[in-house]
Specification:
Helix 3 runs parallel beside helix 6 (192-201) and helix 4 (140-152) crosses helix 7 (225-253). The protein is globular and about 45 Å long. It is built from 7 helices and 8 strands; from the N terminus they run αβαββαββαβαβαβα. A 5-stranded mixed β-barrel has the order 4-7-6-5-8. The two termini are 14 Å apart. The chain has helices at 3-21, 38-48, 77-86, 140-152, 174-183, 192-201, 225-253; strands at residues 31-35, 60-63, 68-72, 94-103, 113-122, 157-165, 187-189, 206-214.
């Protein structure tokens, strides 16, 4: 990117991050939690007695006094790419996505956590940032620290590759299901690969802690409103707690995270 182009991008994101979230750039912390759920933002704000910003904006956000921010960026790869671009206005030290996913293996039960070692770029959005040959990977040291927090709290988690897609209704498509089996992926979602690639392109350290909310490869496992509410009631607090603990402590206890360019 030329100097003039970078300058124009900098001006845009400095204006658009507050525009989308209702929060000034200097109010964002060094570490950021991303989520698809306004309830996570509300719970965070209640816990830390801080204000939820952006109620009338596309994204809601809150920051505590300890340098941690949470953002509900919405659903899908377009929104995932947008928030990772907008965060370059602040250039946080680390970003962790707290999302839900569909489990695709017998070993991934509802309520299990997944720390993806990679994501397959089935969404297309990430192709606008880096060539398809570039793998979508998290920042290893960030994930290492998150895994330690999971173990400390006595939870199980799985590692593996997730498949990211723009398709929302695919459970009926036998050809698509067969492809997922061939790819040996552990889960499917709509944001992880995009977050990883755009984070890489923008030199932002990133990770994802996914909560298995359904097992869509079985007829009884397809997510419904009722089943999703139950998963939220049983597991959302633990999910958010893990994210807060990891991103609150990583600055003091974790290894330094560096982003190398080539």
């Amino acid at each position: 990117m030329s100097g003039d182009s970078q300058a124009r991008k900098d001006l845009i994101v400095q204006d658009w991050l507050p525009r989308y979230t209702g929060m000034r750039v200097d109010e964002f912390g060094d570490y950021v939690l991303l989520t698809n759920f306004k309830e996570y933002v509300d719970t965070f704000a209640h816990r830390f007695e801080c204000e939820v910003r952006g109620i009338d904006r596309p994204m809601q956000a809150a920051s505590n006094s300890e340098g941690l921010t949470i953002v509900n960026f919405g659903i899908g790869t377009a929104n995932a790419a947008t928030i990772m671009d907008l965060l370059t206005a602040r250039m946080p030290q680390g970003v962790l996505f707290l999302g839900k996913c569909g489990g695709l293996k017998e070993s991934t039960e509802i309520g299990h956590f997944i720390l993806p070692i990679a994501a397959i770029r089935g969404e297309g959005t990430s192709d606008d940032y880096l060539p398809p040959e570039v793998p979508a990977l998290p920042s290893f040291k960030l994930h290492k620290f998150v895994s330690e927090k999971i173990i400390e709290r006595g939870f199980e988690y799985r590692t593996g590759v997730v498949y990211t897609t723009n398709r929302r209704i695919w459970e009926h498509d036998e050809e698509f299901l067969a492809r997922l089996r061939d790819l040996t992926v552990i889960a499917i979602d709509m944001e992880t690969a995009t977050l990883f690639i755009v984070g890489h392109a923008n030199q932002i350290s990133r990770g994802a802690l996914l909560l298995v909310s359904d097992v869509p490869t079985t007829p009884e496992g397809v997510k419904t409103e009722a089943s999703d509410q139950q998963v939220t009631a049983d597991w959302a607090e633990h999910h958010l707690d893990l994210g807060i603990s990891a991103m609150s402590d990583i600055a003091d206890e974790g290894e330094p995270i560096k982003h190398f360019t080539f």
